[in-house]
């Protein structure tokens, strides 16, 4: 779909921590996406936001995002609540798809 519209795909890895585990998860996700997605206009960024919702809203405003796909990868952090998902959808005004990292086929290595 991105190729059809000559779109840029931005991947934002957001984490509460700035440690080796976060860096490894970011690199792993980046490698998996690059390995599975045959597309040249991919950008990757890692960030440690203080306020998750505000960060998502700011990313949307500065990157002209038309779709948000959130993949929950860290089992030690609870997934988004229904209320948080509604707030993200409301304040960003773009479609939101939330997946579990364990069930996302893009996150599984071939």
Task: Write a structural description.
Helix 2 runs parallel beside helix 3. Helices cover 36% and strands 20% of the residues. It is built from three helices and four strands, in the order E-H-E-H-E-H-E. It has a single domain (9-107), classed as Rossmann fold. The chain has a two-stranded parallel sheet with strand order 1-2. A two-stranded parallel sheet has the order 3-4. The model is unreliable at 103-107 (pLDDT under 50). With 110 residues, it is of the alpha/beta class.
Helix and strand arrangement:
Elements: E1 9-14, H1 20-36, E2 42-47, H2 52-63, E3 68-72, H3 82-92, E4 96-100
The CATH topology is given as Rossmann fold
Distance between the termini: 22 Å
- Listing every helix as H and every strand as E from the N terminus to the C terminus, the arrangement reads EHEHEHE
Structural class, from secondary structure content? alpha/beta
Strand order of the largest sheet: 1-2
Q: Helical percent range? A: 25-40%
User: Could you give a short account of the major beta sheet?
Assistant: 2 strands, parallel
């Amino acid at each position: 779909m991105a190729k059809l519209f000559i779109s840029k795909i931005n991947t934002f890895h957001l984490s509460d921590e700035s440690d080796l585990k976060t860096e490894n998860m970011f690199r792993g996700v980046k490698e998996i996406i690059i390995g599975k997605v045959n597309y040249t206009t991919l950008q990757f960024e890692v960030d440690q936001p203080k306020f998750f919702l505000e960060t998502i809203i700011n990313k949307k405003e500065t990157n002209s995002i038309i779709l948000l796909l959130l993949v929950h990868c860290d089992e030690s952090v609870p997934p988004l609540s229904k209320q948080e998902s509604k707030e993200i959808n409301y304040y960003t005004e773009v479609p939101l798809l939330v997946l579990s990292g364990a069930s996302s086929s893009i996150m599984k290595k071939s």
